[in-house]
Amino acid sequence: MALTLDDVHRIAHLARIEIDAAAAREVHVKLEAIFAMINTLQAVDTTGIEPMSHAQDVMLPLREDVVTAADQRELFQSVAPAVEDGLYLVPRVVE
Amino acid sequence: MTGIVTGTLAQVAAALRAKQLSSVELTRAVLARVDAAQGALNAFVTVDAEGALAQARAADAALAKGNAPPLTGVPIAHKDVIMTAGLKTTCGSRMLSNFTAPYDAFVVEGLRKAGTVLIGKTNMDEFAMGSSNETSYFGAVKNPWNTEYVPGGSSGGSAAAVSARLVPGATGTDTGGSIRQPASLTGICGLKPTYGVCSRYGLIAFASSLDTPGMFARTAEDCGLMLNAMAGHDARDSTSLDRAGEDYTRELPGSLKGLRIGLPAEYFGSGIDSDVAAAIDAALAEFRRLGATTVDIALPNVNLSVPVYYVIAPAEASSNLSRFDGVRYGHRAEKYTDLMDMYKKSRAEGFGAEVKRRILVGTYVLSHGYYDAYYLKAQQVRRLIAGDFQRAYEKCDVIMGPTAPSPAFKIGAKTDDPVQMYLNDIFTIAGNLTGAPAMSIPCGFDKCGLPIGLQVQGNYFSEAKLLNVAHQYQQVTDWHKRAPTLAGNAGSLPPEGAK
Amino acid sequence: MAAWEVVIGLETHAQLSTAAKIFSGASTAFGAAPNTQAAAVDIALPGVLPVLNRGAVERAIRFGLAVGATINRRSVFARKNYFYPDLPKGYQISQYEIPVVSGGGVDIVSPTRGPIRIALTRAHLEEDAGKSLHEDFHGMTGIDLNRAGTPLLEIVTEPDMRSSDEAVAYAKQLHALVQWVDICDGNMQEGSFRCDANVSVRREGAPLGTRCEIKNLNSFRFMQEAIEFEVRRQIALIEDGGRVVQETRLYDPDMHETRSMRSKEDAQDYRYFPDPDLPPLVIAEDWIARVRSGMPELPEALRERFAEQYLLYPEGCAALTANRATAEYFAQTMKELAGIPGVPYASQGHDATNGKSVANWVINEIGALLNNHQTDIAHSPISPRQLAQLIAHTDRFKGTVSHKSAKDVLTAMWAGEAKGDNAADAIIAARGLAQISDSGAIGKIVDDVIAANAAIVAEVKAGKEKAFNSLVGKVMAASKGKANPAQVNAILKSKLT
Fold it and tell me: Is domain C439-496 classified as CATH 3.40.50.720?
């Protein structure tokens, strides 16, 4: 499970973070150290152990099917980088 | 008045009720102190003088009427990861450096209802990722005990503000130790309640299954007063627990006779600074004098906490931080060629190095082919660790040990080696993995005059007990009363009474 | 060489008809101004958290029961991570390893294989994304998040279909079913019901071929055309020595072809993991029992009952159960008819034969009016009670009006010529449409006509049928068309023999 430089570029792409060759090399070194630490988990025997995703065994609470949210477009769009006619603007998306 | 300005929450609240001073007077004095200390400590990102004074005026009106809520007029600060309507909420990041919060977090609502006055937002490690408050876009926070040293992180600003007696209480969040560790390094109390007791609504999410709102104050009683205002069920958070209300200060006066203190072998190993070890031993001796007994316990899997955490937390964070894409809020790059470029540049520019590293780690451990080996594996080991603690609580009531393996380190000392930095949290992380409550209380100083913290952990929902334990200790010791001297205190002498 | 076989699986996204979104309290109503129905959760503001809408779960349970599936007592929400501007969190909350519904099936009639059951793999809950508007905003795209967070039920079939006909038959059946059990309004123009088709080909007996996914088929016609094109494309490709590449394609209805989508995905790694903000969904037995007891009779059961109880022919049953509103209208009309006092044969003891009569009126007459006025039976201005009263006047029952007159009355009722429960009575009276049904009165007119047409009578007695009809005509004319023709026939006949 050694992390390669290619891996670094691939996951940076998946995470949508621009990374140039120099930065990738630097991050690679640091990530190798982190993964060396994480890989100590591989030695642990976890046969038959149920994964723990929540601190306690709680059930999902449900909410009544009622409209409760008012129109707050003005407030929410006051922090937006680019809006027009109530729409958020992004560079052209080609399908 | 000076005495009251640096009083505890309880003292300040009482003084205001007794009209020894007005909330406006107090707030003005607090704002002046905050301003004076900002250059040296950099504890605050935003100070809202106008808003604070308006709240103080309202507080005075409420106090005049009588029957005002318990913390009316008490000045506090919120960690900048928590949404405060109308104020910038930056998460210590360039990504949100100009973001004004459109709503209040649940814990902010609670503290407002209790009558507190919001002085400002405190500095923090970027997106709550760090143990030294050196990764903030707004610069490092300094330890009030020695400004060449870190205050701990990620809630370094809140810790510094309370430690320097700028405000009597401040909120924080604890995902891997981000309240307890800075509390330990700055000589104050920091409490992380049971996961789900305080709603996460309004907390900018780092690791959703671990993030826990909590508080800093100088006494156990103060922590209890703040927790009373912050706890409660919130329908807007599906992980918020629906339980009967509690007064967390109700057990403070109880005797500690018969208290069984568990001491895990794993917390007393060779990696601990000798001054820390000595201070913990001295604290345990005090507890024995108070009638408690100690019992050896084993937490055989607890050393796996750090690798487990550094799989789960980055994984959840990598997903939680995907919403920061420059589309609807936050930093958007100025120059880009297309959508992909906009995403990549905005995120590369908006996030600092540590945040980017953790996003990459998290993305990798969730990615195709690695999920079972990393994420699933870590969740399984998490259950093993939780099991260790449940078995331990059959033999003891609370578990104690050092909060951190060493006192504060110099700014810049560990920034090159992320793994070294991560090991600061070795004793605190398990509390987040299990979700059980834990607090750090001051219990001494090292040879250089830097504070040392004792961690007290309890089983789920035992906050009142933890506060009782801390409170009784604080009746027979005065570590929690020691205050740093601020002006030019590089290399200051150890405080009176320290070894 | 073995023949080519087509293998098709369908994935359908049905928007659930809740009032509010799946994880936020914003409205799901269609057509609002951009971003006015997007709560903080839907905008993915920092610090907000999802809270599940009970109505979405209830509808998933209803669907599961309707298709005979297993309702999983414990299911888990998972994050599907990818970046796209209409996906504000950078992940979609969906269900991955443990969906809320598993298994089940939908019965269809295949034109080639007859009645078959299309097996369902699963159905799970997830949230819809927002919309991208590509009209030019100076080279930018506009994002509207009103749709983001609308609850979806994703329904996945096994690859059981073998032709575009079968795929369309399944899609139509599913479309009717989700409306029948009131979980989805089925409005395909508004995007409430969207299908993706997974298509592959293989030689009979060979293992499964590589499949392509054709996305966003929002009409049955396009589905048919797209699948047929894709099949031809894949076969031609293989026969030319090429290999089918697994990819996502879109159907272009103007060019009538499928095209590879410019990758918004390119081998996406969704990094699914259980959403830490949402503990597991636990569905208790008594909830399922409550939903089950509140379910309407399903179309198949209803068709069988109509056929048995009313002796209706299959096409009639199918037409009456095309949707619940029609079935209920028919049932109500039958009930009203049985309740009209003193009408011969109208009581429930005669269900079997009355059913045919009422079915005819509902399917053909009301049906034609609905068609002409471009409306549905829920909006019919004629109520079952009014219709029943009119039907009671027809030949089979009271015989007050001829069939043709009755149709005229119906049209008049639609136009609102008279209102209220007794509209039929009122119009018949006002227009003087009542037939003469009294045998005595008719007898008298017949006697008069016989007396005045001796020559024609003689021809009748000589066996000439045409002559008989002409006498009938004269009786009708003499009565100004009001004599009940059946009675005229009978009485004339009896008086001439």
Answer: no
